[in-house]
Amino acid sequence: MELVTPGIGLIFWMTLSFLFLVLILGRYAWKPIMKMLHERESKIDEALNQAEKAREEMKLLKFSNEELLKEAKEERDAMLRDARMVREKLIEEARVKASEEANRIVESAKESIHYEKMQALTELKNQIAVLSIEIAEKLIQEQLVKDDKQDQLIEKFLSNINFN
Amino acid sequence: MKASNTKSVSYFIIPLFLIFFSFINSAFSENTEAESKQNKKEKFNAGEMIIEHIVDNHEWHIAEYDGMTYSIPLPIILYDKGEISCFMSSQFHHGEQTHKGYKLEMEGKHKGKIVKVDANGVVDEAADLPLDFSITKNVLALLISVFLLCWIFLSMARRYKKRENMAPKGLQSMVEPLILFIRDDIAKSSIGEKRYARYMPFLLTVFFFIFLNNLLGLIPFFPGGANLTGNIAVTMVMALFTFVITTFSGNKHYWKELYNAPGVPWWLKIPIPLMPLVEVIGVITKPFVLMVRLFANITAGHIIGLGFISLIFIFGAISTGAGYGFSIVSVFFYIFMGLLELLVAFIQAYVFTLLSALYFGMASAEHHEAAH
Lengths: 164, 372
Description:
The structure holds two protein chains of two kinds. By secondary structure, chain A is mainly α. Chain A contains two helices and no strands. Chain A has one domain. In chain A, about 90% of the residues lie in helices and about 0% in strands. In chain A, helix 1 runs antiparallel to helix 2. The longest helix of chain A has about 140 residues. Chain B is mainly alpha-helical. Chain B has two domains: about 130 residues, no CATH class; about 230 residues, no CATH class. Chain B is about 60% helix and about 10% strand. The chains are: A mainly alpha, B mainly alpha.
């Protein structure tokens, strides 16, 4: 019977002690512990979120890096292509210019040749004219002397003419 | 507020002094006990021995050897008609002597109680029993556990402040999962995210108090061994705390449903208020069940353990060989029961806390659906 009869003394001490425990532990133990736990949890949450964010950013950065690399490569290719084109163009231009120059030189050479030739011909013509006049002079002079002598003279002059 | 705090502190300090004196006294009281040795060799009575071990006592029994009883005497505080008397329990010499007109009854109806005697040393049957506020074995165990709990958790709180936002270490990492378990799986799930914080101090205190005392009860030597959580007074006080908190956290909804249960045919309420009666009985039954469950589980565990040990002496009384032989079986079963009791120690603490949390949750639930 004693087993199931609560004793007044124990009830008194238990009530006192338990109240004391709840108040003291509640104020000086559970409150700070719960606060710390809560704070730590939110810190961990925050850290995890930040890590996730950093990972996203890294991914983005990597992606943009790749993009940049690709762009650079493309640009390089374009530049190389341009350079090649410019080179070819330059070479082509040079060639065209050179051939033009050559043509011009040839042309002018031809022209000067033609000119020289014409000059020479003109001179020749003049020479011929002068000679003709001289021959004619001599002929006229011989005629006045003798007929046969005249022929001889013409022959003689003609042989004297040297066409270079 | 401040005045009441200092008052409760002084209430705590007085028993502490008493414990201190009891330790000092214990040294020479054993000598006096040795002088008054009783050489009666009684027949071993298992039932009596078990009951003696699980009920409260005015002295802390250590051992009995060669007819001498070794025990720690505890302070006796009696209140009788405005008169307080304090003395050590060793004055009674295990019930053989009277002191200041009181006697520790060893037999009969008031066995283990302190009764009044007249001038001739004859028990005064007509007088009422004095109110016994003694620091008994259970009270001392209670004070030890209060000290241990304060020590553990106050130092832990300091640790938490010192190691702010760092991983738990040592005792912290052992107790923290339990705290989180109570917070997340008991309080949050039964009371709800919004209101659970208010009940956390009580739930944590009640859990660790029951758990620590269950474990201490399993230790058969001095600081442990008291059947504190298996004492109906202790479980009653805790159940009453739950009841009071439930009652005070009951909202409008809770009270309305108590007197006017929804979803029940009207003829169960009028003219005979059958349903309100059932509901009111339910309100009282809840803490009552809490009280009985913890008390019965822990007491039963102690009885089984002591029973196995008693078997050794019962067989030993038949023949010494049988006693030694059976001791192997007994010790094996005792270890098995001990391990089971470790589990029960946790489960009972968990169940008490969970049910308290459920009652708080029901009382403070805002919607009818949330409570079920």
